[in-house]
Amino acid sequence: MQFLQRAAAPDHNLRLYCLYLASTGFVLDRAVFLVYMGQHGLNVQQVALCEAIFQLGTVLFEIPTGWVSDRFGRKASMLTGTALLAAYNVGMLLAHGFIGYISMMLLCAFAYTFLSGSDTSLLYELVETGHGSKRYLSYSSKTMAGQQIMMGVSALLGGLLAAHSWTMLYLLMSGVYVVELVMLVAVHEPKVKPDSDCRVPAPALHPDTDTDTVHHTSYNYWRIRSTHWTTYAPIWAFVGFLAASAALDMTAMSYQNSSQIIFATTGISLPAIGLFAALSKLANAAAYLLTSLLTKRFNRTTVLIWLCAAQALSFIMLPIAAAKPTALLAASPLALLFRRCYSSSWKASLRIIWSVPREHEYCPSSL
């Protein structure tokens, strides 16, 4: 009986964390937060600058907050980020003027960088502990699909609620983050061995082998392996490719957020803006499930190439469709669908590829 309880514990912990990740998609102001600032004294240029500051902040804060995650653990980093998001929602009600909203955008960006990377890292560690790393993409795709569905539902509700009361919207979101904090506290973070530990033992030596020679040879082997750039050239080339993809991903996110301003200035109502965002998020949910299906049937590299081409073509079509609002409404979710497919594919690929050397290389400290 105790054995069954121990076996069920990792699965229960993983399910709880997946439920938490899905709940983080419930963000009521995601589709209308720029409209909120526009209705409270900011002009279009100031709102656009606030959006730019937010995107820039997510880049600048990534390194220091990443250190917190590595030093104190993924869970501690995420607890900090969630608490800051609760403070951000209260602050949005108290902020006044351009400087006030700029400060809130920086606070929001700072909070999200505590979550960015830590959420997927903790998911990977939980899946690896209970089922092995090969199941990560399946769990990640389904969890992110649930998150996008929650985003779609909350975007629609947020648009309806914003038309009634902005105060109620932001107070409700603060309460949601408090609930998420409670859920996250209940999640048990697995203990991960430091990078210096060995997962694969070094081969046994023959009794007649000169140990000094072996140690000298091993030292030279690891020194060359750690310094010669050609050893990891394919990985660094792939990282450079992903950096360009991340820049494109941020550009697409800026377009998605800035569409709030475009729709508001053309007279589209808040519920209609929320509906558009909801459809986009549902398309994202379908993208995660589609990506999981494609990577099961085709080579991961092939999937990346075709999704990259489809994403590029869909964004080329957007200026063509801009002349007709109905065509733009149809083309935008399609472009975001391919963007999300591509984004989820390369992020999962990076997570899996980056884990391979730790599983298949010897540890120099053991030689």
Automatic annotation (TrEMBL):
SUPFAM superfamilies: MFS general substrate transporter. Residues 1-367 form the Major facilitator superfamily (MFS) profile domain. PROSITE patterns: MFS (PS50850), SUGAR_TRANSPORT_1 (PS00216). One of its GO terms (molecular function) is transmembrane transporter activity. Gene3D superfamilies: MFS general substrate transporter like domains. It is found in: Cell membrane. It is a multi-pass membrane protein. Keywords: Membrane, Transmembrane, Transmembrane helix. PANTHER family: PERMEASE, MAJOR FACILITATOR SUPERFAMILY-RELATED, TRANSPORT PROTEIN-RELATED. The keyword Transmembrane applies. The chain crosses the membrane at residues 101-124, 169-187, 229-248, 268-291, 303-320. This is MFS transporter. One of its GO terms (cellular component) is plasma membrane. It comes from the Bacteria.
